[in-house]
Amino acid sequence: MVLNSERITYVFNYAPAIIFYQFKASLTVWLPPRKEVIYMDYTLGVDIGTTSVKTVLYDIHGKVHGYSNDGYPLYQDTPDMAEEDPEEIFSAMSDGITEILRKANLQKGELKGVAFSCAMHSLILLDDNHKPLTRAITWGDNRAVKYADDLKHSPEGMEIYQHTGTPIHPMTPLTKLIWLRNDHPDLFKQARWFVGIKEYILYRLFGVLKEDYSIANATGMFNIYNLDWDDQALKIAGVTREQLPELVDTTYQLKGMHEEYAKVLGIDAETPFIIGASDGPLANLGVNAIKPGVVAVTIGTSGAVRVVTDKPKTDPKARVFCYYLAKDMWVVGGPVNNGGVVFRWVRDQLCAPEKVTAEQMHIDPYDLLTEIAAKIPAGADGLLFFPFLGGERAPIWDANARGSFFGLNRTHTRAHMIRAVLEGIVYNLYTVMLALEEVVGRPKSIQASGGFARSALWRQMLTDIFEQDVAIPESFESTALGAATLGMYSLGLIDSLSDVSNFVGTTVVHHPDPKNFNAYRELIPIYIRLSRSLEPEYKNIADYQRRHEHEDADANKEG
Q: What total of structural domains would you count in the chain?
């Protein structure tokens, strides 16, 4: 064996070390690099929506590490009904959390908390054993319309609105309770508890009935000045404090989950669950629209225009709501029933050929429809559309409202109708903004979000009709992010809710196009005047439709 006097290296694979012997050198032992374990704080944001539970895992910097969207059906067995099964929602929530945590494979102690957002206005009747006597009656249920109308036009209706900040409408548990007490008295008497879907889910997990100020605020029975149930509203509803959950702040933490559910979810039973708030206020937080004058405009299935103030504010004309978010943070605004759901109606009922074409071309039908609409000038050549296909909330608060085209002539095409529908949705949001301005002043800036934000055409329409710059935040699932941010604040992981500005990412800003101003400035006043003039006939046409819907349903049963 010949040795190289300068350098000879023998290499031995000797686990766990690799030993190198070097001639004319000292013995060196190199240990393989150890895998560094990096611990991170995570928070789950759980958004219980109208048709699905969206669950998002965020780290301390607001970065997304997991996402789940678990749906459930909306039951509409009779006219005006809109219900959901509490067990299906509970399963969707459970499945979403379980799936995300299984895939994330977090280290013990890394999940710091779970924070909730929830759709407003749901109502479930529970018996003595906390078992549901009803499905979850959602905000979209209009069966209380008669009682809502009676209360709205009574002196007590305006008084209750001024106390609670919640406009009188069949969406609210207040009017639902009046309807149930009058039309289903036996069922009403059976009930021991009256709760919403979030309260039911948390009871299942923890065995206690708690309700946050924000969700309670949306019942129409919560006094926004003393943060307690409102005596006058409770008397009209026919319920007592003892039949409602205990009220807590939106940062309240629940611990000590039932072991059976902790094992199913894969969560330590002592992990804090932050009760959170309602979805509208949390959407503002999730797009960083929490400073005075910063307005959030959302168009998803429905839509809303909202701004945060430091104290409760109501409208002398009862056109906007005032909902609690957190200490010294109140969200004033107006929701609309008719957002993306109207565009879906256009796709399915007016544009079936275009839908087939889009499927054959393997493109989104909505993209094709917006391309068609973009070829029509602003204002759709004088064609107006009133988007009240499902009644309407703000600013008219009329469950009887119905949709219509106005101004049709022989030159108008389906493309004009598509454009008019998109513009009509935004016109309606603009009327909400006008009402909001009377209460809180002109907005300093606008943040827009929701499914519509994927459409460049719709974003530009919003910008031109509002005649203001519109910023589109990059934040992912803004409502879940709002819940997670509130959770981080409750847990002490961030110092202030304003830290959400570090989470939303960059924004795209759209600027108004002056060439479209003249058309919109001329048409919007016509839209507003027509909307007011149609209101007296909404009830008449709605009564006619309901009567014939019931007759058709009865005929089908007999057949």
A: 2
